[in-house]
Amino acid sequence: MWVKGQTDAKAIMKIIEDGRAPNPRRVRIFLAEKGIDVEYEQLDIMASDHKTEAFTGLNPMQRIPVLVLDDGTAISETISICRYFEALQPHPPLMGTSPLEKATIDMWQRRVEERLLTAVANVLRHTNPRMAVLEDAQVPEWGEANRPRVNWMLDVLDAELATRSYIAGDEYSLADISALVGVDFMKVIKMDMGERHNLRRWHDRVSARPSATA
Fold first, then answer.
1. Is the sign of the CA dihedral 157, 31, 107, 187 positive or negative?
2. pLDDT by residue (tens digit) across 1-17?
3. What order do you get walking across the sheet with 39-42 strand by strand?
4. Residue ranges of the alpha helices (H) in 10-139?
5. Which CATH architecture has domain 14-88?
6. How many angstroms separate the CA atoms of 44 and 70, rounded?
7. Phi/psi of residue 165, nearest 5 degrees
8. Which tens digits make up the pLDDT trace of 56-102?
9. At what angle do helices 174-185 and 118-127 cross, to 10 degrees?
10. Strand, helix or coil at 170?
11. Checking CA distances to 185, which of 54, 110, 151, 178 falls within 20 to 30 Å?
């Protein structure tokens, strides 16, 4: 791993991911904002690579991404991985510095994760027959029930962005990363931002950051 200001550029830790999935992209954008390079190892969730004995040993939840440290310690869950790197390299801060900033970013990040990212994923995984391999049982009705949930959250974000530049305030944060990935992820379920002008203005701004292509 390489961190700004660090003279030893030797790759020590790695992240196991499927680069097509939204949660790994959140981590990649986060690390790009930090200027941190990490070795990546790819697996194919559509081939059930995440259900192998070896991977399950790293993460019994069988979810990606997983950060594996040089001593073999495995850290899973997207936000936990981001928290690790935020503590390792606090600048630029993406999870807040003051108690209020930290709480506000965490609040919006969680809302976006639950109300947008998860809702989009539910539509995809329960309505697309190709995604059946990722679910114990597909429930198409549940997938379709999540479409209005997506639209509801887009309305909330559009209203909030009328009064500020970014999701959680006047500074770019982890909440923006999660929201960007969530909005872009809507393409796979053939949904878009519609005529939500504040949301579109924000999306143009965050998409123009170099990290957005990480």
1. positive
2. 434 444 343 447 999 99
3. 39-42, 14-17, 66-68, 74-76
4. 22-34, 53-58, 78-88, 99-112, 118-127
5. 3-Layer(aba) Sandwich (3.40)
6. 23
7. -80, -30
8. 999 999 999 999 999 999 999 999 999 999 999 999 999 999 999 99
9. 30
10. coil
11. 54
Which two structure tokens, joined as six digits, stand for 50? 């995440």
Pick the CATH number of 99-213 from 1.20.1050.10, 3.40.1620.10, 2.60.40.1090, 2.60.40.420: 1.20.1050.10
Nearest by Cα to 121 from 196, 64, 76 = 64
Strand 14-17 and strand 66-68: pairing? antiparallel
* 76, β-bridge pairs: 66
Residue in this structure with the two tokens 């990935």, named with its chain if needed: 181
At residue 80's C-alpha, the angle toward residues 57 and 17, to 5°, is: 55
* β-sheet bridge partners, residue 102: none
Can you tell me which residue has the tokens 């097509």?
A: 20
Whole-number Å distance between alpha carbons of 177 and 137: 30
Beta-bridge mates of residue 75: 67
Is the Cβ–Cβ distance between 32 and 24 less than 8 Å? no
**First CA to last CA distance, the chain:** 16
Tokens at 183, concatenated: 């909005």
Cα 110 from chain centroid (whole Å)? 11
